[in-house]
Design goal:
With 363 residues, this protein is mostly helical. It is 30% helix and 7% strand. It has 7 helices and 5 strands. It has a 3-stranded antiparallel beta sheet with strand order 1-2-3, with no helix packed on it. A two-stranded antiparallel ribbon has the order 4-5. Strand 1 and strand 2 form a beta hairpin.
């Protein structure tokens, strides 16, 4: 590759420019923003040779016989040419080994290129990985890639305080479990009072079947032939029992949550249900959608326990959901369970920041 003579940015000092005569750099350097002369620079007068001093190896004295002479660095007048055919750059401006590629200040144009100036090289200034004045492979920005993230970047969950919907603290999981157990106990008590007779009649209808199954199990018989069949009345009683159970649960939970966000169990534990985005009370529609994921699976209890499995997964989800600890019925109704305002506590300071080695994920 033939490089035409001309003025180009000095790779060793990007703030200056020098004249390239096709074989090496000649003449004194000029500021990079100065207007160079149209041709090569005037020849420099040779500097007077320094006075010889005693002792071999002194500055300015010829090399001692037998000692290797230090070759001029690449890019200096009389130095070796670059192995890849371009001008000898003399190594990158930040030190380190020479690289095969154009210098940070721009490569001289090749033969046939327009003489409008050397093309820019490397990413523009300010790009990731660019050094000062657009130098390629410059030092990374402060903190990259393993330092603290810039302001506004997402912070790790364990370094930020927990969310506070509407300024209220999220309800502790233990309080939510106890509140749910209290509510289940009250609904079960209502079923004993209202649904007890239907449950007793259902047991009477299926007693012959269960008695025979129990007898064969004790005798070690595994056959199911000859088992008595449950009457059609048993199937009807089963449907009635489930309907009454769901209706009692609906009457207990939906109106109270719609009006105050609290059932009796939640009021005892000092927690309540609030909308995720709005500030007013839930209302009947949102409370009903929330109840659907809780109450409707009751009708699937007789289908190999599928309904109970759905309810179990629903109630266990807050232990794994982050950061709002929502159950499936919370996600269905767009709600979140928080401490009531009277039981709310001030926000705790985070145990550590993403950049603090003493902090860590919550236990």
């Amino acid at each position: 590759m033939t490089v035409q003579p001309g003025w180009y940015a000095d790779p060793a000092e990007p703030t200056t420019q020098r004249y390239w005569d096709g074989e090496g750099w000649i003449g004194a350097a000029l500021p990079v923003d100065a207007t160079p002369p149209p041709g090569p620079p005037p020849a420099e007068e040779p500097e007077p040779a320094p006075a010889p001093s005693s002792g071999a190896g002194a500055p300015g004295s010829p090399a001692a016989p037998g000692s290797p002479a230090t070759p001029p660095p690449p890019g200096a007048p009389g130095g070796p040419a670059a192995p890849w055919g371009g001008p000898p750059w003399g190594g990158p401006p930040w030190g380190g080994p020479p690289v095969s590629g154009p210098p940070p200040g721009g490569a001289p144009p090749v033969s046939g290129a327009p003489p409008s100036g050397p093309p820019a090289s490397g990413p523009p200034a300010g790009w990731p990985g660019a050094g000062p004045a657009g130098q390629p492979y410059g030092p990374p920005p402060p903190g990259a890639p393993y330092g603290p993230p810039p302001p506004g970047w997402p912070q790790p969950y364990w370094g930020a305080p927990p969310p506070r919907p509407h300024g209220l603290e999220l309800a502790p999981l233990g309080a939510r479990v106890v509140a749910r157990l209290i509510d289940i106990s009250l609904v079960l008590l209502l079923n004993v009072v209202v649904n007890g007779w239907f449950v007793w009649r259902f047991v009477q209808e299926i007693e012959p079947v269960t008695r025979e199954i129990f007898r064969r199990a004790l005798a070690g018989e595994s056959t199911t032939e000859g088992l008595p069949q449950a009457s059609a009345q048993a199937d009807g009683l089963q449907v009635v029992i489930l309907l009454i159970a769901v209706a009692l649960w609906f009457a207990y939970e939906v109106p109270s949550v719609a009006n105050t966000g609290q059932t009796f169990g939640k009021r005892v534990m000092g927690i309540k249900v609030v909308p995720l985005a709005e500030t007013e009370q839930l209302g009947f529609g949102r409370s009903f959608r929330r109840f659907n994921m809780l109450g409707l699976p009751v009708f699937l209890w007789s289908c190999c326990g599928i309904g109970f499995l759905i309810q179990l997964v629903d109630c266990a989800l807050p232990f794994f959901d982050r950061p709002l600890r929502q159950a499936l019925h919370d996600k269905r109704g767009q709600t979140v369970v928080v401490r009531s305002s009277s039981a709310a506590t001030p926000p705790a300071e985070p145990t550590g920041t993403p950049h603090d080695s003493s902090g860590g994920p919550p236990s």
